[in-house]
Structures are given as C-alpha cells and as structure tokens.
Amino acid sequence: MQFMLLFSRQGKLRLQKWYVPLSDKEKKKITRELVQTVLARKPKMCSFLEWRDLKIVYKRYASLYFCCAIEDQDNELITLEIIHRYVELLDKYFGSVCELDIIFNFEKAYFILDEFLLGGEAQETSKKNVLKAIEQADLLQENLDFQIRLFPGVLGPNVSAESSGLFQS
Amino acid sequence: MPAVSKGDGMRGLAVFISDIRNCKSKEAEIKRINKELANIRSKFKGDKALDGYSKKKYVCKLLFIFLLGHDIDFGHMEAVNLLSSNKYTEKQIGYLFISVLVNSNSELIRLINNAIKNDLSSRNPTFMCLALHCIANVGSREMAEAFAGEIPRILVAGDTMDSVKQSAALCLLRLYRTSPDLVLMGEWTSRVVHLLNDQHMGVVTAAISLITCLSQKNPEEFKTCVSLAVSRLSRIVSSASTDLQDYTYYFVPAPWLSCKLLRLLQCYPPPEDGAVKGRLVECLETILNKAQEPPKSKKVQHSNAKNAILFEAIALIIHYDSEPNLLVRACNQLGQFLQHRETNLRYLALESMCTLASSEFSHEAVKTHIETVINALKTERDVSVRQRAADLLYAMCDRSNAKQIVAEMLSYLETADYSIREEMVLKVAILAEKYAVDYSWYVDTILNLIRIAGDYVSEEVWYRVIQIVINRDDVQGYAAKTVFEALQAPACHENMVKVGGYILGEFGNLIAGDPRSSPLVQFNLLHSKFHLCSVPTRALLLSAYIKFINLFPETKPTIQEVLRCDSQIRNSDVELQQRAVEYLKLSSIASTDVLATVLEEMPPFPERESSILAKLKKKKGPGAVSGNELEEGKREGGELNGAGERPGDSSAIGASNASTPSPSADLLGLRSAAPVSAAPPSAGSLLVDVFSEAGPAAPAAGANDDGFLSSAPPSVVSEDPAPPLPESDELLNKFVCKNNGVLFENQLLQIGVKSEYRQNLGRMYLFYGNKTSVQFVNFTTTVSCPGELQSQLNVQLKPVDPLVEGGAQVQQVINIECLTVFSDAPLLNIKFRYGGALQNLTLKLPVAINKFFQPTEMSSHDFFQRWKQLSQPQQEAQKIFKANHAMDTEVLKAKLLGLGTALLEKVDPNPDNFVCAGVIQTKAQQVGCLLRLEPNAQAQPGEQMYRLTLRSSKDTVAKRLCELLAEQF
C-alpha cells in the first residue's frame, strides 16, 4: 500500500498515512485530487478505480471516507477488508467510534494504525493482539490521569454527522 | 457527547481543537493558529523548563496544526527531547511527530538515531516497537545506514518477542525498499525464510511481506520459501473456520496471510518437486471448490475475504499458465461473477479475465462470455466498470469475433465517457488493423472512427490509415471512393479533411472516371472545406492541390487561380504563403516531366511497428500492454506492410517547411534541466533564400531539403565518426557533480541525460529531442571506448529508434559497468540525416570515475588516521586554484555531495574546510579516497582561492579526481 487517507464528506482530511517518500507539495496535490475524485462518485459505484498508475480502494463509513492507494499487483478485496478491520479496531477502542473521536484523538488513530499496518503491509491482523498492544501502552502512561470524557461544552456546532457511529446501519 | 478520550487526555489540546472547529472562516482559523504558534514558541523559548507533559501537549498541538495543512518550522528539538523521556506516552508523541515531520537536518537525524538506538537496545518490547515503527515510517537513507545492520539481528534472535519481530520484519522491508544496497541479508537468509514456519500467525503475516519483496529481487537465494509457503497455505486452506481463532475473519481462516502466501508463490515458476506441486494444486482446487459452497455468513466481509483469496489463487493459476484444467475452472468462476449483483465483483472479474484471455488454454473459454461483456459495456452504470469491459473485449478479440467487437466498440463510442474515448479510439484502430481480412472493412472502420469521435482521433491513427492505403494498391480505389463520399457530409471533421486531402491527392485519379467524382468535382469538394480548416490542414490541402495539377492537368488553371489569390500568396502565415508561392511557381515553370517526377506517388512506407500500439502502451503506462501483445502487433502489422513513419504533409510533398520548430517548451521533460534556449532556426533566412532564387529548383541549401523539391547535391559529408566537439570537455565538466541535465544542444538537436549509479554499475538514459518539425532519419548512435578505456569500462548501448519525428523525443538506455579505474570518458557518436544532409557529431559521455563513489561516513579520528596512512607522495594530488564562483557554503556542500562522497561534518578542526570520504567501486577493486577542500573565504572577491587535496590508495585516481574537481568550484 502506498498511502491511506481518511476524509469527511466535506472533503476535510482527518488522517493521512504515507508509506512512500513524497514531498509535502506532492502529498497535498494527491490529496486534493483524490478527495475530489472519490467524493464525485455515486454511492452504488464500485469501490475500486484506476488512478495514475495506482489502484484506489475506498469505502465510506457514515461521514468518513477511507481511501487506500495500492499497487498493480495488490489485491483490491483484501484491501477493502484492511479498511474494515481498521474501522473495527477504532470502534472497539473508542467504543462505537465516530468521526469526532478521530478528530479529537487523532494521535490514537495513528497509533492504532501503526500497530495494524507498518510500511504499508499488514503487521498484525488479529483484533485482540492489536488492541492488547495499544492497551498495554495506555497502561504504561504516567499517573497524570486525566481520563476525561470529552469536555462538554467545548464541542463545535454541527457535530451530528461527525458524531454518528461509523458502524451505523 | 459520545466521543471518548481514552488514555491520557490533554485538555489543552482538546480545547484548541474545538476552537479551530468553531472558527467561522479560514481567516479566523489562521488567526487562531498563529496565536497558538506564538504561545507555543514563547513556551519553548521561555526560561522556565517545561515538564514532559506540557512539552508533549505542545508538540501534539504543533502536529495537529501541521496535519491541518499548515507549515511548522519549529518544535523538532522538543519532539526529539521527548524521545528520551521514560514516560511512554511522551515518547510515543515524540516519535509520532518525528514520523510525520521528518526534517533532513543532519544534526537532528543524529539525535533521533541516538534515541532510536537507545530504545532498540532497551530490551523493553514496547519501546523497541516504537523505535521500529519510527524507522519504518521515516524510512530514510540515514536511518537505513544506521540500522540496516542491526534489525536483521533483532528479527531472527531467539529471545525477541513476537510483536518486536513483526515490527522488525516490516521495518526491514521499508528500508529495503528505500535503500536495497544497505540491507544485506546474507547469513540471515535461511533464518528469515524459516519465519514462514513460526508458531505465531502474526509473525508469519509480517515476515512474508519481507520475504516476498526479497524473493522478487533475489529469487534464487530465497527459493526454499516455496515449499514452506505451500505447506503453510495447505494447512490454512484445510483448517476449519474456527481453528485459527482470532486470525479467522468472518469465518474465513487467515485471509490476509493466505493472500500473501499466494502472492509470494507468484514470484516463482510452478514447483518442480512433484509432491509440493501436487499439494499446491490441491490447495488451489479447494479454494475453487469453496467458491461454490454456500456462504457461511451473509456479511459482505465474509464474501470479500473469501473472494480475495479466490482472486489471488486465480492470479497464481494465470501466472503458472500451465494447468489447463485450473485455467478453465478459473474462467468459469469469473464468468459467474460477471453477472454478480456486487459491482465490485463484476469489476474484478472483468479485470482478471483480461489476463486469462491471453492464455492459449483459456482464450476460447473467455470468448464464450462475449455477450455478457458486451452487455456490461452497454449497461454498467459505473464508468470504471465499463472501462474494464472495454479492456476485456479488446483482450478477447481475435479474427473470429473482430467484426462484432469492433462494431460494438464503435457504437459504444457514440455515447462513451469523454475520459476513455481516446483510448477506445486507439483500441478500435488497432483491432481493425490487426484483424483486417479485407481492407475495405478497415478503411470503413477508421473513417467511421473519425466520423464518430473525430476529436479523439490522434495523429497516429490517421497517419496509419494513410500508410496502409499507400502500401496496398488493392484498397486505394476503394479508399478514394469512400473518403470522397464521406467528405460530402455537410459537416465533417477536420481529420476527415486531412485523410481526404491526402488520399485524393494521391489516388483521386482512380475515381475520376466517374463524372460524379470528376477531377473538378473532387477539387471543389476539397476546397469547400478549406476555409473552415486550421493552418496545418490548409497546408496539407495546398499540397493536395499541387498533386492534382500533376494528376489532372485540366485542373491547372482553376488551381493556379486559387494559389494566386491574395488570401494564399499573401497569407500572413509563413508556411501557407510559402507553399502557395512555391507551388504556383512550380506549376508554371516546370515541364510536365519535372512535375511528374517531383509529384510522383508516394513510395510505400517501410515496415515498422504500429505507432498506434506504441501510443496505447504509452497511454496505459508500462505493463498495460503485455510484451506478448506488442510482439503480436508487430507480426500482424507486418502482414499489412505496416509502417510507422509519419505520412505527414511535410514528408509527402516537399515544401520546405522546416522553418517552424514545435514550440514545445520542455522538449526533454527534464524539469531539473537547465532552461532550454529555444532559439528558432532561422526561418527568415529560409524565406529570403526562396525569393532570391530564380526558380523553385533550389529553395534552400542545407538542412531542410527533403528530396522532393530540392536539387541540392547529395551530401558528401564523411560517414566516419566526427572528432569530438571542441566543447565536449566543457560539457563533460557540467556533469561531474550532477547526474541529470542537458548534455548538448544545437539548433536541431537537444540531448538530455539522466543517470543513476549503484556500486560499480550505472544506467544512463539519453533523450534525443528533435527540435525541428522535420524527421531525422537513419538516426544511429555508437559509443566507443578509445585506447585502454576499452578494458576499463564496459558500455552497452540499447538500440535506438532510427527515426525521430519532428518535435519528438526518443530515449536510449546505456548500461555501464566499471571494470577498473579509468580516466578518459567514452565517446558518443551521433549520426542522422536531416533533410538530405548527414549530421555527424561526437560528444563525450558524462561518465567519470567519481560516479562510482560509495559514500563513507567516518569519525574525525578515523579520517585522520587514514589520511596519514596515505602519505606517500604518489598517493596525493593537490591543486591550488582560483575560485570561479562565489564561495557559498551550501553550494559547495551540494557539489561535494553530488560528487558522490560522504561530506564529513565536524572532522576538520577548521570549520571552513570541507572533508569528504568515499570508496570507488569497480569490478576489479575498491579504491578508498579522501578529499579536503580548503577555501580562503576571507580573501577579497577575485582573489579567493581553493586548495584541493586528494589522497587515494591508487595514484591515478587521486590525480584524475583532482583534475575533475578543480573545474567545479
């Protein structure tokens, strides 16, 4: 896999993970182009498309698009399930995950991804093992225990879409 | 609010993120961010030492700001500090920041590498994993240099935790991808392969990606992985859905690992060992059988995972291409998917069937699905699926179904999406040519193409139809008749006018017997389109008119009148005006015999690969059109007397039109190259020549005659390679410290070069750009290694296209092997004919000994120790010379790095001096070199000098490097 992008229906980038060296300028250009391309597609269309010399695999979960770029010989369907497993991991960790969780805890979203995929390849596909690694890390934290549920009142307006669970049916 | 902050909340961060989200406008957001940046900066600069938590919080805020798309130019140091915190979350945030925002600041890299080194040796598995993740995320060369030796050891050590092994495997993979020369598996190979047998499924899953990548590059060394992979696969495939516990995904056992195993096997031919092969075939059969079983779950995840394995298995079956039974079963399975309700499966089935179509065993089986595929082309709602259907139709096309497929593609073109029209046009054109049994069908098809999708018909397509018509006399009459009819449509595409003008100009006589298409009718028809056409088409039509005068003397007065009218003979366009003037003169002065000779029918084009095929290949990128297909194209093209040369107007009728070089700004596509000075060849002087001559016989001496109108004497230039250009040494000097750029340029030709070197091997790409609008023919290049260079350097030239179209560029690959040290540069001779004249020039190929440098990092102590060891007088070469350029430290550094050596910081006691070290890699030996450059920067400009000293274990090397480098500063 060459990179993974998470963005909202409004085209806001929520997470970006690059597995090939690219300049910031190039990254921004790719992101802009892909967000546009994917958002322009209709719901029933197929989840794969050719883009430059890569294959794009994407799937929408509630308000978020998960979009991966893979190489010619890579397997599209298994990539689709990589996305799904990542969403499952986020869901399990945050407890019914929504876009807001990823916005406010972006660093956690990156940590979970690193446990699951490394260098663009699946490192550990067992849900239990990935979460075990993350939770062990959480246990290691210092005693400055904030354990704060997201502070009521500090949230922005219009959060309804962003706060709907990614696994809503 | 449902959002939960697990672990360590950072309240300040959450508040900041909310603030940003509450910003009503972009300006407000930027304002808020700038305020925060100022705040963080003051905290970082403040006298009060920040505690770890605050540092973490601010670094995290900076990261957030960066991820929003803003630039961050500070905080790196604080992030690096976090790396050495012993609190896990602080360390973790530090690593995350570094992973996302790496900076090539060498000082920092050193600190980061230090922190990583500590964590790797901490024996704390979570810390080790963090460090490995960081290396894998950054994957830079510096990190490869520092850790590529250590990680294999961690990977195979008996006491390494499973999770660390997983990270180490993929970390190594990333380093191997960026710096394959630094990752040496050697002694570890067999232990790495045996990770396929590891008890822990996660370790196997991670390790197999590494093994696959290594196998692709070194199949021989890793081939023992085949039998291990087969037995692992067999165990998974035959296990019940619950056996693998958490590695079962929606009732599918280990789908990711299965796919990776099947992928690994695709790096190898079918196993030779009968037992292994039998077991593998059994696996593949089981996978195909399972596809027919009822699903164990209705969830799409179940079917996706199952089918992911199935498609990978089919890819392996196609890769082997040796089991007819499996191939046909695969084809039937895909056939079922073609009508599946899941769009994704239909898409993949179409894609996968494309490769099946090229196997002799399954080609017929694929063909049975033609109706379904045609239906998909017509009814699929998603353009990317329709595209796949079109690809498959193209792949399954053969003589038996060509007419049906071409007809369907043509009718689809009328409604096709703009994005794929051009490609469809190319495909139709290729199929029509490849499977034409009678050429009237071919001509009809191409004219239909132009009618339906004229805008998308590229030059190659209409050049090609003309080539074929010219080369086959049995179709010329039909072509003339058909194109004449097509031109009668009230609105016809300009491409139709071009084809019409050309064909009637050559073969109009074949239909002139019919009063409905008498010469004058033909002429009037063509001329009725004239005013609607662009300049190039008008130019072509003028040429057609002069050909008419030859074919039909009765049209001469009419045509002369047209040529004589002001809108032609005084046209503001130079090309049109020139043609009108020359043609008018030619028709009034020359005798019938001369006219007949000059305007003779075009000779057949030489046989060449179809240029359309090449275009399609280029469009789809390498690999899109299989080599097989190209070969086939060539063969079939041959049957047609196919030719790849451009029958463009310029070569057809020799108006001297070399005057306008194409204005393509970046002829070579080398963005890094120096700006191209596009001085147009002297168009003006050409015209003067034409007017100053009494008759049309000699329009211009020199470069631009092409044999039709010119009576210039045949070229008498010697065919022996010319001596090297006087400036070739200077040109060579430009490339000592860089690998890419423009090597040479004159009014006709530009030569760009790109090169890359690894160890003692190099590959150079030369790009020859034709700056004129006239083709270069008999374009040949040779490389010679004079004298002793022959035994020092092995240079291999890949063939280059002997024809370079006007405005086009061709590429040539040169492989270079350095056998032993050398001093001279190889000579590159280029010969071609431009117009009638032979061009012959010789340059020096920009290969110097320093290209084979391998940088060597060493400490100050090591450096001076080696420096002293090389103290014999012949081991040193020294030069003191005046600075030619300003003494800019950064520029000097860049040049020294470009030289290929490692630039060693903090080695020389005098900070103004530069020292470098490197090893020259040749096949015969390795030669260590040390360099010291001492500028006297304080001197007045104009009096600034350098002292350059080189020491090397081989005297000639020190001397040669000293010579090369003295020209650079």
Automatic annotation (TrEMBL), chain A:
Its main location: membrane. One of its GO terms (biological process) is intracellular protein transport. It is found in: Cytoplasmic vesicle membrane; Golgi apparatus; Membrane, Clathrin-coated pit. Keywords: Coated pit, Cytoplasmic vesicle, Golgi apparatus, Membrane, Protein transport, Transport. GO terms for molecular function: clathrin adaptor activity. One of its GO terms (cellular component) is AP-1 adaptor complex. This is AP complex subunit sigma. The lineage of its organism: Eukaryota, Metazoa, Chordata, Craniata, Vertebrata.
UniProtKB/TrEMBL annotation, chain B:
Keywords: Cell membrane, Coated pit, Endocytosis, Membrane, Protein transport, Transport. It is a peripheral membrane protein. SUPFAM superfamilies: ARM repeat, Clathrin adaptor appendage domain, Subdomain of clathrin and coatomer appendage domain. The keyword Protein transport applies. A 1,2-diacyl-sn-glycero-3-phospho-(1D-myo-inositol-3,4,5-trisphosphate) binds at residues 11-12, 43, 53, 57-61. Signal peptide: none annotated. GO terms for cellular component: AP-2 adaptor complex. It comes from the Eukaryota. Pfam families: Adaptin_N, Alpha_adaptin_C, Alpha_adaptinC2. Its main location: membrane. Residues 653-663 have a biased composition (Polar residues). Residues 733-846 form the Clathrin adaptor alpha/beta/gamma-adaptin appendage Ig-like subdomain domain. Residues 616-666, 702-725 are annotated as: Disordered. GO terms for molecular function: clathrin adaptor activity. It is found in: Cell membrane; Membrane, Coated pit. The keyword Transport applies. One of its GO terms (biological process) is intracellular protein transport. Component of the adaptor protein complex 2 (AP-2). Adaptor protein complexes function in protein transport via transport vesicles in different membrane traffic pathways. Adaptor protein complexes are vesicle coat components and appear to be involved in cargo selection and vesicle formation. AP-2 is involved in clathrin-dependent endocytosis in which cargo proteins are incorporated into vesicles surrounded by clathrin (clathrin-coated vesicles, CCVs) which are destined for fusion with the early endosome. Belongs to the adaptor complexes large subunit family. Adaptor protein complex 2 (AP-2) is a heterotetramer composed of two large adaptins (alpha-type subunit AP2A1 or AP2A2 and beta-type subunit AP2B1), a medium adaptin (mu-type subunit AP2M1) and a small adaptin (sigma-type subunit AP2S1). This is AP-2 complex subunit alpha. It comes from Pygocentrus nattereri (Red-bellied piranha).
